[in-house]
Amino acid sequence: MGRMRNQKGFTLVEIAIVLVIIGLILGGILKGQEMIKNAKIKRIVKQADEIRAAVYSYQDRYQQLPGDDNDPTGHTGVAGLLAGNNNAQIAAAEAPDVFDHLEAAGFISGSFDGTNYAKHAFGDDFFVSWLTASAKTTHWFSYTNIPGEIGRIVDTSYDDGVNTTGGIRASAAYTTGVVTLYIEF
Fold first, then answer.
1. In-domain check, residue 19
2. Of 123, 84, 116, residue with least CA distance to 100
3. Which of 50, 87, 91, 140 is the most buried (most CB within 10 A)?
4. How far apart are CA 98 and CA 105, in angstroms?
């Protein structure tokens, strides 16, 4: 009996306290990751709203859409901007110039050169162009390589939750790995 009293070790209470602390740390990490994911989801819709406002402001000031503007240098005073055809549709070839024109006019900040798109919260390209998404042709905000689950959450939260109808659509079913998410301009 005397030998057992001198042995060192952890009691069940000490082990339980350590396990509770580890559980709290893991819970905090998981909750933090969920908060980051939710912030990114909200950022997608907010980004579309911000660019929509910038495009409307550009159109109000110059009576043309950015990217589609046939005299962006004359309008903004910035040399080297590529001109569009001013047909009131931002074609795929004009889409990279949208951010370049908006930046030159002072409506957005960033570093655009007519060859790069803005990046969305999940790290890939974001742009606006005239295209057909699920049988509806109009100007769409396109978010490339969005996880399908995220696309479903955005669509369900802000629209009808169906990837082929409404003002938010996707290039494929939300059960696929990644989709291009379209938000109507």
1. no
2. 116
3. 140
4. 11
Question: Both tokens of residue 94?
Answer: 């004009």
12-62 and 148-158 are packed helices; what angle lies between their axes, rounded to 10 degrees? 70
Q: What is the total count of domains within the chain?
A: 1
Q: What is the pTM of this model?
A: 0.83
Sign of CA dihedral 68, 71, 72, 76: negative
Q: Which residue has the tokens 């009576």?
A: 63
Number of C-beta neighbours around residue 152 at 10 A: 20
Q: Which range of residues forms the domain containing residue 81? A: 36-184
pLDDT digits (tens, 9 = 90+) for 6-47: 667 888 899 999 999 998 898 888 888 899 999 999 999 999
Torsion of CA 107, 111, 113, 114, to 10 degrees: -50
